[in-house]
Amino acid sequence: MCQIKVNGGRPLQGALTVQGSKNAALPILAASILHEGVSVLHNCPRISDVNTMIQILESLGCSVRWERDALIIDASGVSRCQIERECAAKMRSSVLLLGALLGRFGECKISYPGGCVIGKRPIDLHLRGLSALGVAFREESGDVYGKGRPRGGYFCLPFCSVGATENLLLAAVCAKGVTVLQGCAREPEIQALCSFLSAMGADIRRVSADGIAVFGQAPLHDTEYTIPTDRIVAGTYALAAAGTRGNVKLYGISRTDLAGQLDLLEQMGVQLSFKKDCMEVDARRGICALPLVRTCPYPGFPTDLQSQMMAVLCTALGVSRIQETVFENRFGTVQELIRMGADIQVQGDCAWITGTEMLQAARVCARDLRGGAALLIAGLEAVGETVVDGLSYIERGYEDVCRDFRLLGADVSKGKDNGG
Q1: Which of 190, 207, 226 is the last residue of a domain?
Q2: Closest C-alpha to 43, from 71, 78, 6
């Protein structure tokens, strides 16, 4: 098992450029197969989830290659519409190929997708929305089989699911007629997908704050697009600076990218400043507890930063409360933080964190992507050597977390468990 060793107890200092967005790249990669040609993606993050999506695209018949920072996908040879079970089991975002394959071929077969175990995350809403566009589904031995070319229609999402919004957009691009979607997710990654599809030739129009109209079957063509910066990675490093009482500069990020995060950082006592595409995070004056952190869909505080925020609040002065409203299993890291000396009480969807002066170094285990990032932050806060097992989870979303933290002055290294 691969692990990360963290010698903590020192404030982060330094600067780095934040990587491209995982949550934008994956649906855009799925979208590339809608066009029988070439898509060039700049600033695509080199993370394991992207590698898994590349493997799936290649299994369908795509030709994919890296040229420096650009990922080039030639989808002209796609001939299969079935996602192998092994690939689907690795990553939940494989479900996005459902809408893309239905849009291109009018047919798709996929196993129920896997990924981090942070909640039920069913795909029934995806299927309901696609059914409203004329697709018929049946289940075959644990696989979902969809058949029928999407046609324009209307669907109102009962809640703003990011994945369902993306799947419906992908199917609607090739649908005959106009598709109107209401109750859509508003995350920046949705806008990135719409921008990429528009650059490819799709006719997509915003009709309200949560409404999108897609005029289907617009001619698609080769395109070149730059993946936006990862706002969750930027938030992770900003929170790490807060937890260690450090001072860091993060390049490639803007104030609008971090909606839902900035107010809470400032309430904690963190000094923030922006110049062009650079954010400076200064927590050298210390941080205090937060009366309530409530996870919400964008523009609220993202659930993908809840675990990292909890790690920071473990050493903030006072008592904080976190309410998780998105995924029921997001408190899976609590027991590992308690092993490091954190004072956390969980009741239902709320966790109360009483700040302690210092966390204790320990050996802990990541069980999901963002929980792993939280344990690294806790290790940076603690004095002594913390060992975080489960590096494979962290590599799903962070290009090279050890490199990045070293750029910020941390003592971190990657290795393998030798059984000692």
Answers
A1: 226
A2: 71
- pLDDT at residue 118 greater than cutoff 90: no
Task: Tell me what the pLDDT averaged over the chain comes to.
Answer: 93
CATH number for position 293: 3.65.10.10
Peptide bond into 158 cis (omega under 30): no
The domain tally of the chain equals: 2
pLDDT tens, residue by residue, 171-206: 999 999 999 999 999 999 999 999 999 999 999 999
Q: What share of the chain is helix, strand, coil (3-state, %, to 5)?
A: 35, 30, 35
Per the structure, the complete domain to which residue 218 belongs is given by 22-226
Active-site choice (44, 116, 184, 194): 116
Question: Which ranges constitute the DSSP H helices of 211-305?
Answer: 231-243, 262-267
- The verdict on whether 350 is a catalytic residue reads no
401/343 Cα distance (integer angstroms): 27
State whether 275 and 305 are in the same domain. Answer: yes
Q: Is the pTM of this model over 0.70?
A: yes
Query: What is the model's pLDDT at position 256?
Result: 86
Q: Residue 68 contacts by C-beta under 8 Å, 6 or more apart in sequence?
A: none
Average pLDDT over residues 369-391: 97
Q: What percent of the chain lies above the pLDDT cut of 90?
A: 85
DSSP secondary structure of 39-82? EEEES----HHHHHHHHHHHHHT-EEEEETTEEEEE-TT----B
Residues 10 and 35 grouped into a single domain:
no
Whether residue 194 is found in the same domain as residue 250:
no
* Rounded Cα distance, 379 and 373, in Å: 10
272 Cβ neighbours under 8 A, 6+ residues apart = 262, 265, 266, 279, 280, 281, 282
Q: What is the pLDDT of residues 291-309, one digit of tens each?
A: 999 999 999 999 999 999 9
Strands of 189-329 (E only): list them.
Answer: 203-208, 211-215, 223-226, 247-251, 271-275, 278-282, 293-294, 319-323
Residues 295 and 196 in one domain: no
Nearest-angstrom CA–CA distance, 384 and 382: 6
- The token pair at 289 is 């507890």
The pLDDT value given to residue 266: 97
Assigned token pair, 165? 């919004």
The pLDDT of 243-269, averaged and rounded, is 94
In this predicted structure, the answer to whether residue 51 has a pLDDT above a threshold of 80 is yes
Task: Answer with the one of 191, 226, 261 that is the final residue of a domain.
Answer: 226
Contacts (Cβ under 8 Å, ≥6 apart) of 178: 152, 213, 214, 215, 216
Task: Indicate whether 241 pLDDT > 90.
Answer: yes
